[in-house]
Amino acid sequence: MGTQYDHLQDSERDELASLLSQGFSCRAIGRMLGRSHTSISREAQRNGLSDEQGYRALAAVQFAKERRSASNTYERLRKPGLCTYVRERLMEGWSPEQISGAIADDDPALSVSHEAIYQWVYADAPELIAYLRRKHRNR
């Protein structure tokens, strides 16, 4: 099992910016902060501004927050035609389990789990709750 990467704290980013501006290497900074030199290097590359501007702690914090919030957002059933396919089958009285089982036969390029269908209905298409076998408002 591999090691888990822990993101730097805001205070560590402040120290990192100061130490990088003083010319310390990633290995030396890693030893000072008690972090792996690869974590320091990765942080400087991902959240740094540019070679001319260097690493700025406040900008790095903002970049990291934006990246983290964007990582939790995704579009359910994002393949073209999939929403239409699922919507039509639900309105015909099919269950999400039946839809996910039959979709591979109808169009091998598409695949979706029944859980993804339920999540899509409850989050993005609440008007279709009435077509589910058990019409709970909440799951």
Write the layout of secondary structure elements.
Elements: H1 10-21, H2 26-33, H3 37-47, H4 57-71, H5 82-91, H6 96-106, H7 114-124
Helix pairs in contact: 1-4, 2-3, 3-4, 6-7
C-alpha termini separation: 35 Å
Strand content: under 5%
The stretches of 5 or more residues where confidence is low (pLDDT under 50) are: none
Number of domains: 2
What form results from the Cα inertia axes? elongated
Number of strands: 0
Task: Give, in order, the helices and strands.
Answer: HHHHHHH
- Mean pLDDT comes to 84
Structural class: mainly alpha
**Number of helices, counting only DSSP H or I runs of 4 residues or more:** 7
Radius of gyration: 24 Å
Q: Quick one: biggest sheet? A: none
What are the salient characteristics of this protein?
2 domains; 7 helices; 139 residues; mainly alpha
Structure description:
By secondary structure, the protein is mainly α. It has two domains: 62 residues; 50 residues. It has seven helices and no strands. The longest helix has 15 residues. It starts with 9 loop residues before the first helix and ends in a 15-residue tail after the last helix. The model has no long low-confidence stretch (mean pLDDT 84).
Task: Briefly say what this structure is.
The chain is mainly α and 139 residues long. Helices cover 56% and strands 0% of the residues. The chain is elongated and about 70 Å long.
